[in-house]
Amino acid sequence: MKVLLTGIAGFAGSFLAEMLVNEPNVEVHGVVHRHDRRIAHLAGRLHLHRGDLRNAVWVGEMVEQVRPDYALHLAAWSDVGGSWQQPWTTYELNIQCQLNLLEALRRWQPACRTLVVSSNEIYGLVTPDDLPIDEETPFRPNSPYGVSKIAQDMMALQYYNSHKMPIIRARSFNHLGPGQADDFAASAFARQIAEVERGLREPIVRVGNLNAERDFTDVRDVVRAYWLLIQQGEAGLCYNVGSGTSHSIRWLLDTLLELTPASIKVELDPTRLRPSDVPRSYCDNRRLKQATGWQPKIDLRTALQDLLDSWRAQLARS
Prior knowledge:
By secondary structure, this protein is of the alpha/beta class. The chain has two domains: 2-175 and 217-241, NAD(P)-binding Rossmann-like Domain (Rossmann fold, 3-Layer(aba) Sandwich); 177-214 and 246-281 and 298-317, UDP-galactose 4-epimerase, domain 1 (Alpha-Beta Complex), CATH 3.90.25.10. Helix content is 39%, strand content 16%. α2 (56-66) packs parallel to α3, α3 (87-108) packs parallel to α4 and α5 packs parallel to α7.
């Protein structure tokens, strides 16, 4: 069985790759654009294709060569806050890359089961009456990133409707874990704490809005959901991927502070506040559970411990 994974060197993609190389009778092919640091330890256990998904000719040649049975499309611009500064780059990367991939699959491997990873950001400005957010909740995007993910989600649906390609959509809620970039709140906190421990900064953690509540899941549970969905999900449907519960950003910070022996103060940094925010968001994940039997296995405290330890290890190497 040939599995094509875009974004294989990204945060979620690298964990998915590590899981897939241990699956029996699976040949893993991954698309790499720039660095492959996160998957360097998997060298020799997978096939890497170096190129740019924005290049339609290259994508077509790559898909023609691989002829995958499964394709999991994770490659994307994933910085919600950064999308305000670079909206067009966000649109270009998230829409054009997926369009080129689906066109290549339509031409060379239309029977390939494909998973397109969308985001909870498509729901945007949810109200308390919307909670828990199910797959029928209206789209009210409140960031350029959210708009780009709606385009990806609807493009996947259109290719299913128009070409009968077996495409499944995963609408992922927030995930965290070891190796996450510090563009995200929990990882930004963890990096600052690890730097304080090593004497690299003053004992202060700078934060944005701590009151927002989000649906967090360990990244290793998230990629397990992706793998289950591409095998067992119903083509044409979308599935929320999340824990079904919410935790505040303050809870993440407090938990990380409990995991360090350092005495650290907390200060508000206005530059970390987004132009718009939603007080509380969490998903209804019953459709995912009913289709696959998925349940999260890793509790958030363990995820945060592993995240902090990964920053400690990275700083020790630098």
